[in-house]
Amino acid sequence: MILLAIALVAGAIVQELPPGASVIERADISAIAGVPREMILWTPDGKLEESAAWSCAADVYGSVFWRGSFRVSLIDSGQRRIVNTVELDQYLDAVPVTFLRRSHPLYPTSVGGSKARILTLNDLTGNGVASDFALLSYVHCGSVMSTALGYDKQADRVVHYSIEAPGEEPHFWVSQVFAHKQVRPGVWDFVDSGHGSEHMTRLRLKFDNARRVFVDESVDVPNHHKSSH
């Protein structure tokens, strides 16, 4: 019964989603946009699965999860039409995204329940508006890939924020960062231990509001504790 009750009826929300699509979550952002708007997390082909087997991912996501490909769309909820869509195939093509066995600071669970709220909006860019959210993909124990999306009021679009780092092509996913607490909105600065390696990484990321991108200023630092043994 729980598996059937989770998916929302796609046609009742927007007419343009393909047959068989399931809406996983929706967030009303009309107050932010000034016009009827929703962001929806949905899957064109995903299926709910349940597994009792323990794994590092299951310790975070729980035993019930979606598996498939995923999209985030901005919806004109007045006209029930899609404004634009971001595809999330990289890292999230076969990863559970909805249920957590234990609470995660990014995804608060309902009182007395275990269903996490993935579209929990925060200010991740420092613009003073809680219109962004992070998605996480746990690769293995202690290792998580993370990405950030949000609503751009000026463009009236849902955007997938890119990340720029010296010597690298712009990309959308970064290890660890968005799973951690911000120093202040739009800024992360913490040390990743590297799981016992001789070097640690000081992960530093900040949002460049003029260019609307995240700038990665991470640097390697010596692991003095490791080198002393």
The radius of gyration is 18 Å
Mean pLDDT score, rounded?
80
The biggest beta sheet reads: 5 strands, antiparallel
Give the N-to-C terminal Cα separation.
54 Å
- Helix fraction by DSSP (H/I, runs of at least 4): 10-25%
Strand order of the largest sheet: 1-2-3-6-7
* Tally of discrete structural domains: 1
- Gross morphology is globular
String of helices and strands? HEHEHEEHEEEEEEEEEEEEH
Count up the helices: 5
Beta content comes to 35-45%
Alpha-beta classification = mainly beta
Q: Spans of 5+ residues with little confidence (pLDDT < 50)?
A: 1-7
Q: Give the beta-strand count.
A: 16
Account of the protein in words:
The chain is mainly β and 229 residues long. The protein has one domain (2-227). Helix content is 10%, strand content 38%. The strands form four sheets. A five-stranded antiparallel sheet has the order 1-2-3-6-7. A hairpin with a 4-residue loop joins β14 and β15 (213-216). The chain starts with a helix and ends with a helix. Residues 1-7 have low confidence and may be disordered.
How are the SSEs placed, and which strands pair?
Blueprint: H1 2-6, E1 8-9, H2 10-13, E2 22-28, H3 30-33, E3 37-43, E4 47-50, H4 56-61, E5 64-67, E6 71-76, E7 81-87, E8 132-140, E9 143-152, E10 157-160, E11 163-164, E12 174-175, E13 187-192, E14 199-208, E15 213-216, E16 219-222, H5 224-227
Parallel strand pairs: 11-15
Antiparallel strand pairs: 1-2, 2-3, 3-6, 4-5, 6-7, 8-9, 9-10, 9-12, 13-14, 14-15, 14-16
